[in-house]
Design a protein that fits this description.
Layout lengths: L9 H5 L12 H10 L4 H11 L7 H20 L9 H13 L4 H20 L28 H14 L2 H12 L4 H5 L6 E4 L2 E8 L3 E6 L2 H13 L19 H14 L9 H13 L4 H8 L4 H5 L13 H8 L7
Antiparallel strand pairs: 1-2, 2-3
Helix pairs in contact: 2-3, 2-4, 4-6, 7-8, 8-10, 8-12, 12-13
InterPro entries: CB, DNA_brk_join_enz, Integrase-like_cat_sf, Integrase_catalytic, Integrase_recombinase_N, Integrase_SAM-like_N, Tyrosine_recombinase_XerCD
Keywords: DNA integration, DNA recombination, DNA-binding
Organism: Actinoallomurus vinaceus
Length: 337
């Protein structure tokens, strides 16, 4: 029997919920979860510092780390394992359970990375014996696999057309910005009116993106017209959130999920989608149109070009083969006379 964790069968392990609503969504909820799991106060203080340091300064990033760590802490509690004394055997069993749960490889990799980062900080603060996830094998991402349901060019056009004719100006503007910027839904829902402007003849919108950076996006005329119509209906406010509810509150991501599925269904899309489907589709269509990889990478805000390549569905197309141009460049010209 491994120290720090009770050996359990695979079936009992799989009974622990590892998907759905996360055990904790806020630092306060995570602290309560850690106390219940037996984490000493020094470990709680170290966790609080970890959450506001490094790459976790952005509220959205911090919330994601809270959720990912909470899954592990909840699993530890169910298996009578104290997180501060967890062993590599416990970590390996947890990873095996994640794989059995049917989660996407990227999700599993992200959860492992988050918990490993947390333990690295705890170890530095002498609040954990080891980092049980150090050196753990993470799922290899399939460059051609993505669980996001994308949309074809025709489906995007159908959704926007339906929204223009049958939905509110707010919905139409929101959908246009989701596609035209390929922005993450959290960034778009955080967009502010005063972030609209001009730059060297381009209509632009500054969005706070991953890593708490501000990125400037060009807004094409059709998207700008949709935004202007939306703001006119609101009485042309000069500042504040670009998209708000009837009571003036920020729209939620759950609302956006329901909205895009309702409009997509009404436009004839036969499958469920997510707000990320618009980002996915914009990147895929841009690559399919032959835009250079580095240009699309910058547009998408990917740190690694390999991430952008995952969206390139036409990578094996023979139409793209450089063989023809290569051959033409070395084929000698012959005089037929």
């Amino acid at each position: 029997m491994a120290v720090g964790v009770e050996v359990v069968t695979s079936s009992a392990s799989a009974a622990v919920a590892l998907r759905g609503a996360p055990p904790a969504r806020t630092p306060h909820e995570l602290a309560s979860l850690l106390r219940a799991a037996g984490m000493p106060e020094a470990g709680l203080r170290a966790t609080a510092l970890w959450l506001v340091s490094g790459r976790r300064e952005s509220p959205h990033t911090r919330a994601a780390y809270v959720r990912d760590v909470s899954w592990w802490v909840s699993w530890c509690t169910a298996h009578r394992c104290v997180p501060a004394a967890a062993t590599t055997a416990a970590a390996d069993l947890y990873i095996a359970t994640l794989k059995e749960s049917g989660l996407a490889r990227a999700t599993i990799g992200r959860r492992i990375a988050a918990v490993s980062s947390w333990y690295t900080y705890l170890l530095r603060e002498q609040c954990a014996a080891i980092n049980p996830f150090e050196g753990a094998e993470r799922p290899r991402l399939d460059a051609d696999a993505s669980r996001t349901r994308g949309l074809s060019r025709e489906q995007v056009a159908a959704i926007l057309g339906h929204a223009a004719d049958h939905e509110s100006a707010r919905t139409y503007a929101l959908l246009w910005l989701m596609f035209a910027t390929a922005g993450r839904i959290s960034s778009i829902l955080d967009a502010r009116i005063e972030q609209l402007g001009q730059d060297r003849g381009h209509q632009v919108l500054d969005l706070t993106v991953k890593g708490d950076r501000v990125k400037r996006f060009a807004i094409p005329p059709a998207a700008l017209a949709a935004v202007q119509r939306h703001l006119e209906e609101r009485g042309d406010p000069r500042e504040g959130l670009l998209f708000v509810s009837r009571t003036g509150r920020r729209l939620t991501q759950s609302y956006a999920w329901k909205l895009v599925n309702r409009v997509a269904g009404a436009a004839g899309v036969p499958h469920a989608i997510s707000p990320h489907s618009f980002r996915h589709s914009a990147i895929t269509i841009a690559l399919g149109d032959g835009r250079p990889l580095h240009v699309v990478q910058d547009f998408a805000g990917h740190a690694d070009p390999r991430t952008t390549r995952r969206y390139d569905r036409a990578r094996d197309s023979l139409d793209r083969s450089p063989a023809y141009e290569l051959a033409a460049s070395v084929t000698p010209e012959r005089n037929e006379d």
